[in-house]
Amino acid sequence: AWSHDGHPRRQELADAARAAGVELFQPAYAGGVYEGLLVPVFQGTTMYRFRAAELVLATGAIEQPLVFGNNDLPGIMLGGGARRLANQFRIRPADEAAVVTSGEEGILAALDLAAAGVEVVAVADTREGPADQRLEDAEIEHLTGFSPLEAKGRGAVSGVIVKRGGEKRTLAADLVVMSGGSAGNTAFLSQAGGNLRFDRDQQRYVPGRVPDGIRVGGGAARAAR
């Protein structure tokens, strides 16, 4: 797995599934969920049609951006993108990075970038509270209660201004990583006739009514932790 908190038993679980007689299609993707739990699966030039007695939707979550001035400058990317460059492709995406976040995804991005040799100048976190111990251990400054105000740079990012009340800080960096939490990828659930509800504790939409024969798991059902 390419993420900082990747599942250490990924290959072991895949081998156990095969040993139990489970056929794994990889790489492949599902094209939808239709009446009667009919699922077309595409692998290369072949389409398989499966009609399931029970269907588990583990379609993951989609990371959300944060809204601030000039947040479309080259050199600004989502936390998941930065983590993938560092971990899957072994690319150091910048010399210095500033992270602006409202949740756990940004913390993990900062840790992964630091492990890849990027100097993380600070993590500006919209949440109040004490500094994250993991960031302190990595010697990364954790600015709690700070929100991004505006990215700096012309043609490419050179830093970001963050704000808490009347206090402003400018974080100079050639990479700004932003993460506004995640939203479950629930398109298949909606297509199958399910709906969503807003969970105030997680501050995001989660599965509400789930049709018979369908279960939703993983990031599609809850916020990333």
Q: Could you walk me through the main structural features you see in this protein, from its secondary elements to its overall organization?
A:
The chain has helices spanning 10-19, 79-87, 104-115, 133-137, 187-191, and strands spanning 29-30, 38-43, 46-51, 55-57, 61-63, 76-78, 96-101, 119-125, 142-144, 147-152, 159-164, 167-172, 175-179, 182-184, 196-199, 204-207, 214-216. Mean pLDDT is 91; it is low at 1-5. Helix 4 links the parallel strand 8 and strand 9 (142-144). It has a five-stranded parallel sheet. Strands 1-2-3 form a three-stranded antiparallel sheet, with no helix packed on it. Helix content is 18%, strand content 34%. The chain is α/β, with parallel strands linked by helices and 225 residues long. Helix 2 (79-87) runs parallel beside helix 3.
Give a count of the beta strands, DSSP E runs of length 2 or more: 17
C-alpha Rg (nearest Å): 20 Å
Main sheet: strand order: 6-13-7-8-9
What portion of residues is helical?
A: 10-25%
**Subunit organisation of the chains:** single chain
SS summary, helix count: 5
Straight-line distance between termini = 16 Å
SSE pattern: HEEEEEEHEHEHEEEEEEHEEE
Given helix and strand content, the structural type is: alpha/beta
Can you lay out the helices and strands and say which pair or pack?
Blueprint: H1 10-19, E1 29-30, E2 38-43, E3 46-51, E4 55-57, E5 61-63, E6 76-78, H2 79-87, E7 96-101, H3 104-115, E8 119-125, H4 133-137, E9 142-144, E10 147-152, E11 159-164, E12 167-172, E13 175-179, E14 182-184, H5 187-191, E15 196-199, E16 204-207, E17 214-216
Parallel strand pairs: 4-17, 6-13, 7-8, 7-13, 8-9
Antiparallel strand pairs: 1-2, 2-3, 5-14, 10-11, 11-12, 15-16
